[in-house]
Amino acid sequence: MGSGLNLAGGGSLRATLPGVGALMALGWLTYAAAAVALTVYFFRNDSLAQQWGNRLIGAALIVQVLVFGAIFYQMKSPMDINGAINANQHQAFGAWLAKRSDIDPTTLAPQQLQAEGARWLNQNASGLEISFNSNPVELAGILTLIACTAFVALFAWRGKRMLEKLPNLDALDDLTYKTVSVAFPLLLMMLVTGAVWANESWGTYWSWDPKETWALVTWLAYAGYLHTRIVHGWKGRTSAYFAVLGFIFVLFTYLGVSFLLPGLHSYAGVD
């Protein structure tokens, strides 16, 4: 609500943007159809299934770009924000309003909370703004999906040419080792400085919050990669599995934990 009211800390409201949900559903259906086609190609070596799988991946990329464009177009277009906020959110929002007024929401009936939330929105909806700033991880998730889909589509379109231009496997293996060697101490620095920040903010260096825990798991995965590489001399495919596993953990820590596991760093369960 401009600079006058910050709805963070439990008072967040989600508005439904017209048409975006239908485009997202179409996108996931396209992904599912592409997965079926490429699975048939993988097990049966069916060239027709491969062609359709590649086409559907391209179609999914187009749909995702349309989703991204539709979100920002709708955010910038004039709309009835109060009408876009589902009435199911009124009770939780009324409880948040009660807390801001130093009233225990448990002392009020659900109908009172529902009515208070609806009343406030009817009076103040004209001053509300739709923004991605309240949930930047969701925006990052959409952009990550677009980037991954674009990579798969590019590989399907020019896969052989891309493989021909890559360095040999030994050079790639050495590059992965050098990259992890540089990133590993930086990841350790992130854990240490994050713990210091947590102590300043919450009075404890480590609370086994899901984001903290998975950041540690990611660090241990890369520690395992370096240990097996340096001590046991692992190279090639076996060593690469560790690096890929570590990258999967990075993505899960940043995106998966934020939406699937509730915690201090999480968006899971936010009304």
Automatic annotation (TrEMBL):
Domain Cytochrome c assembly protein as annotated: residue spans: 141-265
Main location, first listed in the record: membrane
Superkingdom, natural source: Bacteria
Keywords, in A-Z order: Cytochrome c-type biogenesis, Membrane, Transmembrane, Transmembrane helix
Membrane topology: Multi-pass membrane protein
Subcellular locations according to the entry: Membrane
Transmembrane regions listed in the UniProt entry: 20-43, 55-73, 139-157, 177-198, 213-228, 240-261
Cell inner membrane is among the record's keywords: no
Function, as annotated: Required for the export of heme to the periplasm for the biogenesis of c-type cytochromes.
PANTHER family the UniProt entry points to: CYTOCHROME B_B6 PROTEIN-RELATED (PTHR30071:SF1), HEME EXPORTER PROTEIN C (PTHR30071)
Family: Belongs to the CcmC/CycZ/HelC family.
Protein name: Heme exporter protein C
Protein's organism: Chloracidobacterium validum
